[in-house]
């Protein structure tokens, strides 16, 4: 087994291959050492989603932390990642741990770390924990008695869902949407957000709201190819105002308009800037990941809203949100955070904020999108993952750093940016970003242009250039 390393969104591995009780115990022990060295009388919140073995892995982590004198709060059933982050903040815990591989393949699980600020743990702290992971297991789980730890109060059950739903009701006025008569269609993708819509809008259309660790063989990733059923339902039903699809742990979101058209995270970010800065006249900065649409700058300039570009991964965005007054933050992979909520991605919260925009403005989602396009101009965005061997991946990244690529097919490079990966501009409205994945052995290609045809042509030209190196 390779050394355990954390990527942009935690540590992920294949269940029963590298993701085992033994491996999770090593990471948990390192987390416990870090907590006891950094804090006096530390406390942690641990959750899990609907992936295979989630509760078992959570209990192993809880026992190890409790054995080191750490107060541990756990849920009685699966929860979302935002529930864990919110509970860390509300309970004044020092750390959150979420057993989840987010939107990853169905045979994966993961281990996500949350800081005491209520968002992804900062990079330095993650590295400190990573460096404490031993090659040998330091503790025998069989010697740790679960019932004894419960009796002693070292491990306590707490209803994280109740804490979260109170926050939703207190801040997002769900009764406004109910009173409007508008309808929502919801796809939980068999993930841990499945109870949210049932509790808040029990009469609304919902699908894949049961526990199925195989996810019917479809990764709980809310991208177009995985959401045809939701799109078709909205198209044929004709009375749906908004479709909401969440990933496996409900921190990422994709929306659909009343015609069944997909609204990705780039458009959701633009919509929320338009609603919050335009209609509600709220103030604050916008934070956007380096791979996000370039149209964020255009709409921020339109509303005189300061824009901060960040490295990819919500750890960096979260850090900025703790230091600045932020209106909204987002990244193209589906993560959206509202500044008055948490420095954390929250797919359900973002979806309900768009629902509130529809009610408050009295306009359909399609009409609001038309207003956004009138400010930004039309654009198309695509992301493609390339599976290349390690040697080729390394060569591609070195070539990017050394400015080897001067063109991709007929697209000639006029300038580059290298905040995170390498972004090649062919014009002010056409660009390509090449970077290695922070969670999987892949090279990611991101492209944007005025039309879908041009965007796909950029992707294909880049693919031919890079694959040709093999």
Description:
By secondary structure, the protein is an alpha/beta fold. The protein has three domains: 11-160, Alpha-D-Glucose-1,6-Bisphosphate, Chain A, domain 3 (3-Layer(aba) Sandwich), CATH 3.40.120.10; 183-376, Alpha-D-Glucose-1,6-Bisphosphate, subunit A, domain 3 (Alpha-D-Glucose-1,6-Bisphosphate, Chain A, domain 3, 3-Layer(aba) Sandwich), CATH 3.40.120; 380-467, TATA-Binding Protein. 39% of the residues lie in helices and 21% in strands. The chain is built from 16 helices and 22 strands. The chain has a six-stranded mixed β-sheet, sandwiched between helices. It has a five-stranded mixed β-sheet with strand order 8-7-9-10-11, with helices on both faces. It has a five-stranded antiparallel β-sheet with strand order 16-22-21-20-19, with helices on one face. β7, α8 (194-200) and β8 form a beta-alpha-beta unit. α10 (265-279) packs parallel to α11 (295-302), α10 crosses α13 (347-361) and α10 crosses α14. The radius of gyration is 22 Å and the shape is globular. The relative contact order is 0.10.
Strand fraction: 15-25%
Tell me the number of structural domains.
Answer: 3
The percent range for helix content is 25-40%
Oligomeric grouping of the chains: single chain
Please summarize the sheet with the most strands: 6 strands, mixed
Low-confidence stretches: none
CATH class of the largest domain: Alpha Beta
Mean pLDDT: 95
Number of strands: 22
Number of helices: 16
Structural class: alpha/beta
The CATH homologous superfamily of the largest domain is called Alpha-D-Glucose-1,6-Bisphosphate, subunit A, domain 3
